[in-house]
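go over this chain:
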Amino acid sequence: MSTTFTIQAQVPGGEPCLSVVDYVNWAVYRAFTTGEMRYYRVIEDKISLLVDLYDTTKYPYNWYSRRNPFDINKITPL
């Protein structure tokens, strides 16, 4: 049995879902790199799981959820 993949490059203007994904990634990135949480706060109720792959000191508890909300003061600095 073989599987075939077709990959088509898209721009956010042509695929609105990409804009949503871009914003979420940017908001999380901004929180990690600048410590600014205001953009993340706009979407935090939509995020059910956020894993901090670089926080190996807290592994296997290096994730955030609704029970353990993400906050910039909890992360290990980059």
Q: What stands out?
A: The first helix runs from residue 16 to 34. Residues 16-73 form one domain. Strands lie at 49-51, 63-65.
